[in-house]
Design goal:
With 383 residues, the chain is α/β, with parallel strands linked by helices. The chain is built from 10 helices and 17 strands. It is globular, with a radius of gyration of 22 Å. Bound molecules: S-adenosyl-L-homocysteine.
Amino acid sequence: MTDVKKQPCPVFKKCGGCRYIDIPYEEELKKKEAYVAGLLKPYIKLSGITGMKEPSHYRNKVTAAFGLDRRGVPVSGIYEEKSHHIVKVDSCLLEDRKADEIIVTIRNLLKSFKIKVYDEDTGYGLLRHVLVRVGKTSGQIMVVLVTASPVFPSKQNFCKALRAKHPEITTIVQNINNRTDSLVLSDRENVLYGKGFIEDTLCGKIFKISARSFYQVNPVQTEKLYSKAIEYAGLTGRETILDAYCGIGTIGIIAADKASRVISVELNKDATRDAVTNTKKNGITNLTVYTDDAGAFMEKLAADGAKIDVVFMDPPRQGSSEAFIKSLLILKPAKVVYISCGPDTLARDLKLLTKGGYKVKKAECFDMFPKTDHVETIVSLTR
Ligand code: SAH
């Protein structure tokens, strides 16, 4: 493992993203492991943490804010912690290098195309954010230009100039966002170049990824995590699986060959659209995707008396809902594999699941987010 102790970052104090930038990686892993082990202690002894060989530049999705700095000069970078001042960033230790280069190129092109960055105070200006997504296996790259208004003068020439500098870009999308909250992307988009999405491969399956769909940011660790999830489920080919909070369908699609039937549910419409495409793309015929709140969907399954053998649940940081867990306790699947990016909410949900008759069999961590204070945990439960 590499010692990243003295890797410099000029803005790390202002950014606050890299909590563990100044300690060796081994130590960071120990701290994360100890933290989760403490939370899971009432249920299970944690079986360790899997780190990365190269814990840098792993993020396949990079978002840069565009705006004016304190002196009114156009910049791109990150918001200073707990503020709306943008700190200029050229390269970040967590982010894909090519994505960072593309963002700097965009910043440098603005002047010759007379594109104004958006000013939050006055509401004047066009470009608000740039998001870059990289398919680490496919090499495909998507650039999303988030603008305050649909009117984007000489957009085609701008795209041409950008692609001339970075021919590796496979698609460019304009997202129009005039909202005043902190959401980066709205649901209005125009494809300016290419197909409007990228593809990537995970665990031997191919996935379509749109601008607004959730896709794990660290593909190297995601493969290890998903393989473990499949291992924990111990599939025989006869099971009916529920893949809850399925995103673009990843876990269910990877498990489908080893199961009788897969039911996948996800709230985000763009993600379920991708999940349907991904199911077809991989030639899978035993998987159905539903767009719904996972809790409401579980209530319906429970009311219908559905027979589910294995539940994969991968909720967002807020964890699962009471409605979801209550219905799960009615459905009584033999196995539950819980994938969590929020250790606190995981512990909270495990309390309910163990009270309801489940026993935690195994738990381990995967470091999906080196240098930051986030950590992923996977837990196997049986009745
Ligand atoms: N399993 C997927 C996605 C996990 S991220 C993967 O590994 O890629 C969590 C997902 O839960 C996101 O796609 C998010 O859109 C979805 N989500 C959030 N709240 C939800 C809810 N109430 N019901 C269903 N899905 C939800």
